[in-house]
């Protein structure tokens, strides 16, 4: 087993991975950008080192710097979390060349599954149904138009290297095809450095259902649970739940075994998620995410399996610690992504300083976060504040607990999407489990957000006033981190770039003045 792991990420996912490592008695190394020099995840780690300026391209995407830190600190492995370098085959390859274990699948598998065209071929070889469309990237526009007319409009143009909802364009009429294709190709080239685009049938109002898998080096591959991720904006998930409201044991087994076949077809290792769209009783392969998912926590809640620990065990060459027969789905879990964004302004990001912050608690509530009062939501990174999860014995109880948790949540200083989540939890269609990727528009959720924002404004002021302006940090990552927050009064993580001496928790001490900078105070971050 590893004795030291570098986490090549930030925020809540860095803390989530560090928690698993701490329980496994593995030391952790954090990397932090200039914007994150006083962040909680850097305090939580056993060691922390500067990786570069605030811009992600110069810090969390800086492969040379990250690998240099890993080698200089004696790390045997790197966990990439999600986003940043987690699905970059070049980084996985560089890790292997440096003799450092990349906690994830191999570079070749990441490369092949990173291409939506190639992954469709893999799914077809595994006998998994795919949405009708072109088999290769579009090179002949007239032929592509012919295929589009054959499968029927509307069709979807998709960037082969796309992800996160970027690089997709719906075409509803043949007269729009050429212009839409050129626009999508330009976007794909700009965003991914790959202009390859293919066309497939646009399935109207499907459900988005995914299957979590784990695969070890001994050939064991298991499906863990299903998750419903249909509530999205701009093809990006906002609310997830496990299991899907429509799931039956028979359908879970069928889709789970399909996901396992895809993994075995290419010799997949570690954690992954096979995504499907589901419509009118049929499911179709969508893509494979070759990393830990943002929403992995709800699968952990309904199965009791620590997916991150299993990732680390697999990367260390150990077998999965259970069998397929050991996995049982118990209860129901829902996740709301709490973001600093304005749902009344097309979900535009709302960076800024958290003036007051109080996360939810109580029975059945899990909050994964890395923020506190005084923390600044940076414009350089994703606007996520936390992942709020509610667990119940039934779906109805999980919804009731989520509604209560959203009522308790207090965030002042930035605009959040909490009113949006309240609107969904109060929606009758959601209670009935009538979900699709068009859920927000179909149920006029944004209009309901306006009503809720007005209705709850007085309550928000009352709860917020209960928090004194000078109170200590109210951490969202539970009381387990409280001791580290308190230690921040006597610590400074700021180091000069290029200083490779490194400092452990006991060695990092703030000074009243001098080259190391000012003392760090939890409510005085930048």
Tell me about this structure.
Helix 4 (89-97) packs antiparallel against helix 5 (107-114) and helix 13 (418-425) crosses helix 16 (445-455). The two termini are 37 Å apart. The chain is α+β, with helices and mostly antiparallel strands and 526 residues long. The chain has helices spanning 11-23, 40-44, 63-72, 89-97, 107-114, 116-125, 141-151, 177-192, 249-266, 296-303, 307-315, 395-408, 418-425, 428-431, 439-442, 445-455, 457-465, 482-487; strands at residues 4-7, 27-33, 47-52, 77-79, 101-102, 155-163, 166-171, 197-201, 207-215, 221-233, 236-242, 270-279, 282-289, 332-339, 341-342, 348-349, 352-353, 356-358, 365-369, 376-377, 384-392, 410-412. An 8-stranded antiparallel beta sheet has the order 13-12-9-10-11-14-21-19. Strands 3-2-1-4-5 form a 5-stranded parallel beta sheet, with helices on both faces. It has a 3-stranded antiparallel beta sheet with strand order 7-6-8. The protein contains 18 helices and 22 strands.
Pick out the low-confidence regions: 469-526
- Provide the residue-averaged pLDDT: 88
Number of strands: 22
Specify the number of helices. 18
Biggest pleated sheet: 8 strands, antiparallel
What is the strand arrangement across the widest sheet? Answer: 13-12-9-10-11-14-21-19
* Structural class label: alpha+beta
Shape: globular
Radius of gyration: 23 Å
Helix share bin: 25-40%
How widely separated are the two ends? Answer: 37 Å
Strand content: 15-25%
